[in-house]
Write a structure and sequence with these properties.
Length: about 475
């Protein structure tokens, strides 16, 4: 009995002595209970700028109303459920896509300048007065590399990204030849332009075939199937990101569309028009860039934010659900079944009659594409889910897609990148009215670019998220 009492007293001493300790066993004062660290507040999903929340739900997917094309095997109706997500309220515009390609251009230019600068000699906070100011951030005079940077440099870096070769984005770039700081800078920048013997009318133009966006993504479906996640499942992509502006001529061999070929992507008159001439791979590269942009911003904050959910293309189930605007069996995004409102104005940008691309401007017709937000939004707040341009989806296209995909967030992920045919939705400015129906499916090869195909992005919303919070412009 005495021995038992002594052991009990010894344990009491150990416990009482550990009350003031700050060891790894937990917070003091919690009476030995297991209490998770961190705030107990619920997670609030931050709504990305220019996107609207689409609440999850169930709907009948497919041509549930009428099928003028007589091809029910393309869209066999079935009830499916999709989770919540954010979606771009409009198609990606020329102005938005130009931000992407200019960022890729600037990144390549800075990388070339940093390599040419070598050890530099520039100083932190340099204004680009010499090529030395463009040296890698870790090479700048007076800037001490972190222990991690030193270690990675000694190991030769790591595949995909070298911490010691971090670019200094604070130094302004100059593309105006009269503002070049020195001859070496001019030599580096000139390598990005078409050589003189390949220029038309001696116009100095960037060689956009060299402007490629490099990224990688994981084939999760194959990794899970093989029960062995590893680098062998990483897919590396190098995508030339400039849109194919020749589509305005190639798509219409016997039509005069040269002004659009020359001006549509770059002229400020078209900045709020949907970008076209973009392949499926280019659209996915844009999604990765958008994700990286948000991730880098979150990492730059002193108070770190939760890792951003990635941006991606919608599956065709998500696209169709969003297009219906919360209306079950909606023929068109506004419900239907008519293509005009009670005043006789068209509700979307499409070809109203054979050979008639523009019937009456007062009724809302456009010869080609229209600026975004020119037609009424649907019940979810989305514009141009019918007409204007068809839109890429993540999903592969085949007659068996509906049969084999799940009824919960249907998607054939293991075929997504292998299948050459991709589903496009929504109809376009050149299509007849019935092609604008929410359940109508069409396809295009993923390496094809068209004057009537664009895209919009979505971002998943965690199932446990609370109310949404707007981001500032």
């Amino acid at each position: 009995m005495k021995r038992i009492l002594l052991i009990f007293l010894s344990a009491s001493v150990v416990i009482s002595c550990s009350k003031g300790s700050k060891g790894s066993a937990g917070k003091p004062g919690l009476k030995g209970e297991l209490v998770p660290r961190g705030s107990s507040k619920s997670f609030i999903a931050e709504r990305p700028y220019g996107m609207v929340p689409i609440p999850g739900g169930s709907f009948v997917m497919g041509m549930a109303d009428q099928d003028f094309a007589g091809t029910p095997e393309k869209a066999m109706p079935k009830t499916v459920t999709v989770s919540s997500f954010f979606m771009d309220e409009t198609e990606v515009t020329n102005a938005e896509y130009r931000v992407f390609i200019n960022a890729v251009r600037d990144s390549i230019a800075r990388g070339l300048l940093a390599e040419a600068a070598g050890e530099g000699g520039g100083e932190e906070g340099g204004n680009g007065g010499s090529i030395g100011d463009f040296a890698y951030a870790s090479k700048k005079t007076g800037e001490e590399a972190t222990p991690y940077q030193k270690f990675m440099e000694s190991q030769g870096g790591r595949d995909g990204y070298d911490e010691s070769k971090k670019l200094d984005w604070k130094v302004p770039l100059q593309y105006n030849t009269s503002a070049y700081p020195d001859e070496k800078y001019a030599e580096v920048l000139e390598s990005m332009y078409l050589p003189a013997d390949k220029r038309i009318n001696n116009e100095r133009i960037i060689d956009w075939s060299k402007i490629k966006y490099n990224y990688q993504w994981e084939d999760v479906a194959s990794a899970v199937k093989d029960k062995n996640r590893g680098t062998q499942y990483l897919k590396k992509e190098s995508i030339a990101v400039y849109p194919d502006t020749t589509v305005w001529v190639k798509d219409f061999s016997y039509a005069y569309n040269e002004p659009l070929f020359d001006q549509y992507f770059w002229h400020n008159a078209y900045k709020e028009y949907p970008v076209v001439g973009v392949t499926w791979d280019q659209a996915r590269a844009y999604c990765d860039f958008k994700t990286k942009l948000k991730t880098d911003y979150n990492n730059s904050l002193k108070k770190k934010k939760q890792k951003s959910m990635r941006f991606r293309l919608p599956t065709e189930a998500e696209w169709e659900y969003a297009a219906k605007g919360g209306i079950q069996n909606a023929t068109y995004p506004w419900g239907g079944p008519y293509l005009q409102d009670d005043r006789g104005c068209y509700l979307a940008n499409f070809k109203p009659k054979r050979g008639t691309y523009i019937e009456d401007e007062k009724k809302g017709n456009y010869t080609y594409t229209a600026p975004v937000k020119k037609f009424p939004k649907n019940g979810f707040g989305l514009y141009d889910m019918a007409g204007n341009v068809s839109e890429w989806t993540e999903s592969p296209y085949s007659n068996s897609t509906y049969e084999f995909s799940s009824t919960l967030n249907p998607y054939l992920s293991n075929q997504a990148y292998r299948e050459v045919k991709k589903t496009i939705r929504g109809g376009s400015w050149k299509d007849a009215g019935y092609l604008l129906m929410t359940g109508y499916r069409d396809w295009e090869r993923k390496d094809s670019a068209r004057s009537y195909i664009g895209f919009r992005t979505i971002q998943d919303i965690p199932a446990g998220a609370g109310k949404f919070k707007r981001t500032t412009k």
